[in-house]
Design a protein that fits this description.
The complex is a heterodimer of chains A (about 300) and B (about 170). Chain A has about 300 residues and is an alpha+beta fold. Chain A has 3 domains: about 15-75, no CATH class; about 85-120; about 130-280, Rod shape-determining protein MreC, domain 2 (Thrombin, subunit H, Beta Barrel). Chain A has 4 helices and 12 strands; from the N terminus they run αααββββββββββββα. Chain B has one domain (about 1-165). Helices cover about 70% and strands about 0% of the residues of chain B. Chain B has 9 helices and no strands. In chain B, helix 4 packs parallel to helix 6 and helix 4 (about 45-55) crosses helix 9 (about 145-165). Chain B is globular and about 60 Å long. In chain B, about 40% of the residues are buried. Residues about 1-10 of chain B have low confidence and may be disordered. Classes of the chains: A alpha+beta (about 300), B mainly alpha (about 170).
C-alpha cells in the first residue's frame, strides 16, 4: 500500500470530504444556535439589508409588466363603470353612516356603563398601515413580509390585522421590513373567547391557510357552528376583542375525549395587500408575587412554538 | 449538435471569475422572483443548479466553501434557519465535485439522469431538517428537484454556449 501513496504535485488544500465535514459541522452548529439561542439575529440583520434590496428589485422586475398592464386597463376603464361604482359606494356609505350613528350611541352608552362599573377604559390602539411586499418563498412556512420595519418603530410581538380581523403577529423585524407569522401557521396559538358564551379557549393554526382548529375542548362544551371567536386578551400579546375566526364544523365523536372543531379565519389571511400593525398595547397589571411561581411555569409550557 | 455539446474538451474560454459570480447571482435572483403556490413547488432551484454546473465543470474553482456561502445568503433571503440551505448546498457541491468526471463522461442529454440523485440528496437534506425541527414534511417540495433535473439540459447548453469563443476557430 505504501507504494500507492499519491505524490501531490499541486497542493489543493484539504480534501473535499474534509471540507464537507467542516462545513456540515459549521452549518449544524449555526442551526443549533439559531434554534436554541437566537444569537444570530444581528448577523442576519446585517446580511438582510443588501439581500432584501436585491429581492425587492427582483420582485419589482417581475411585477412591473403586470402593474403597467393594470394601469393601462384602468386608463381604459369606461365612465359608465366608474359612475356605477360611484353609485354603489354612495349607497354603501349611507348604510355605513347610519351604522356609525348607531355605533356612536352605543359607545356613549357603553362608556356610561363602564363608568358605572368603574372599569378601566379600554384604550384605542394606535395603528400603522403597512403593505405586504412579498410572501415567504418556502413552502414549509406561511409568512408574509411587510414594508415597515424597526425604522418605523415596529417591534416583534406586535399584532397585525386587517379591517375584519386578526391576521398574525410580527415575529422578526429588519430595519425596513418586518416578518409576520400568520395565525394559520402550524401550531401558532391564539387565546380566544367565544363571543356568544364567553367561553375561553385557545385556537391553533393548522398549516392550512383556510383552517384553524380549536383543540382540547370537551365534547360537552357549548360551542355551535357559526360562533364567532374573539381574542380574550389574557396573554398580553393580543389586545382583547379582536375577531379571529368563525366556527365552521364540529365533530363530537364520543370515542375521543375532545371535540374536533374547525374554524375559518375571519380576516382574509391571504387576500389582503394592506394590513394594519397595532402598536401600543395597554399594559396588563403585574402578576401578584405569590401567584408568580405557578404562573411562570404555565407560561413556559404554553409558550408559543418557535416561529 | 450533440458532438458540439457532448464533451468539455472543446475549446472554451477560460471560465472568467466574473462570469461565474454573475451566473450564480442570476440564479439567486431567479430564485427570488415572487413564486407562489404550485409554481413555488415546481420552481427549480436555479442557484443550486448553476452551482452544480460549476462544481462539475470547474471543480477546482468552485468548492464547498463557496456553496456554503451561497447557502447562507439563501438562508437570509428565505429566512430559513441559519445553515439550512448552507448544509444542503454543501452536500450538493460535494456530490458534484466527487462525481464530476463521471458526469462529464456522459452526453449532455444523459446528464440529467446523473444529476438527479445529487439534487434529490440535497433536497432531502433540506426537507429532513424541516422534519426534525418542525415535525412535518411537505412532499410537493420534492417536485422542485424533478424540474431542476429537467432544467439541467437547457441550462448547461446555455452556459456552455456562453463560454464558447465568439470567433470561428477554423477561420484564419
Amino acid at each position: 500500500m505504501d507504494s500507492t501513496q499519491s505524490f501531490k504535485f499541486f497542493n489543493r488544500g484539504p480534501s473535499a470530504a474534509a471540507r464537507l465535514i467542516f462545513f456540515a459541522l459549521l452549518s449544524l452548529l449555526l442551526m443549533f444556535i439559531d434554534v436554541r439561542y437566537r444569537h444570530l439575529e444581528a448577523i442576519r440583520n446585517v446580511l438582510a439589508l443588501p439581500i432584501q434590496t436585491l429581492q425587492r428589485a427582483a420582485i419589482n422586475i417581475a411585477t412591473q409588466p403586470g402593474i403597467l398592464l393594470d394601469e393601462f386597463g384602468n386608463y381604459l376603464d369606461t365612465q359608465g363603470n366608474l359612475a356605477r361604482e360611484n353609485m354603489q359606494l354612495r349607497q354603501q356609505q349611507t348604510v355605513y353612516a347610519t351604522q356609525l350613528l348607531e355605533l356612536q350611541v352605543l359607545q356613549a352608552e357603553n362608556e356610561q356603563l363602564r363608568k358605572l362599573f368603574e372599569l378601566s377604559q379600554q384604550a384605542d390602539f394606535p395603528m400603522q398601515m403597512a403593505e405586504i411586499i412579498y410572501l415567504e418563498r418556502d413552502i414549509f412556512k406561511r409568512k408574509v413580509y411587510l414594508d415597515k420595519g424597526s425604522q418605523k418603530k415596529v417591534t416583534a410581538g406586535q399584532v397585525v390585522m386587517d379591517q375584519v380581523g386578526l391576521v398574525g403577529q410580527v415575529t422578526r423585524v429588519y430595519p425596513w421590513v418586518s416578518e409576520v407569522t400568520l395565525i394559520t401557521d402550524k401550531d401558532h396559538a391564539v387565546p380566544i373567547q367565544v363571543l356568544r358564551t364567553g367561553l375561553r379557549a385557545v385556537v391553533f393554526g393548522s398549516g392550512n391557510i383556510s383552517n384553524l382548529t380549536l383543540r382540547y375542548m370537551p365534547i360537552s362544551s357549548d360551542i355551535q357552528v357559526g360562533d364567532v371567536l374573539v381574542t380574550s386578551g389574557i396573554d398580553g400579546t393580543y389586545p382583547p376583542n379582536l375577531p379571529v375566526a368563525k366556527v365552521k364544523q364540529i365533530e363530537r365523536d364520543p370515542a375521543y375525549p375532545f371535540a374536533q372543531i374547525l374554524c375559518t379565519p375571519l380576516a382574509g389571511v391571504d387576500q389582503q395587500r394592506q394590513l394594519m400593525i397595532v402598536s401600543g398595547l395597554h399594559k396588563l397589571p403585574e402578576i401578584p408575587a405569590e401567584a408568580m411561581k405557578p404562573a411562570d411555569i404555565k407560561s413556559k409550557k404554553s409558550k408559543r412554538s418557535k416561529p | 449538435m450533440s458532438e458540439q455539446f457532448s464533451k468539455d474538451q472543446e475549446f472554451l474560454l477560460p471560465a472568467n471569475t466574473t462570469f461565474i459570480v454573475l451566473s450564480i447571482f442570476a440564479g439567486l435572483m431567479l430564485n427570488w422572483l415572487p413564486w407562489q403556490g404550485l409554481w413555488l413547488a415546481l420552481r427549480p432551484d436555479f442557484a443550486a443548479l448553476i452551482l452544480l454546473y460549476w462544481c462539475t465543470h470547474k471543480p477546482h474553482r468552485i468548492g464547498i466553501g463557496i456553496a456554503f456561502f451561497i447557502g447562507i445568503v439563501a438562508d437570509v433571503a428565505d429566512s430559513s434557519l441559519f445553515g439550512q440551505h448552507a448544509l444542503s448546498y454543501s452536500v450538493l457541491a460535494f456530490g458534484g465535485i466527487m462525481l464530476h468526471r463521471r458526469i462529464q463522461m456522459f452526453d449532455v442529454r444523459e446528464q440529467p439522469l446523473q444529476v438527479f440523485p445529487l439534487l434529490l440528496t440535497s433536497y432531502a437534506v433540506y426537507a429532513s431538517i424541516h422534519w426534525i425541527i418542525g415535525g412535518k414534511i411537505a412532499w410537493e417540495f420534492f417536485l422542485g428537484c424533478l424540474t431542476s433535473a429537467l432544467l439541467w439540459l437547457p441550462l448547461s447548453i446555455l452556459l456552455q454556449t456562453m463560454r464558447r469563443t465568439r470567433t470561428d476557430p477554423n477561420e484564419l
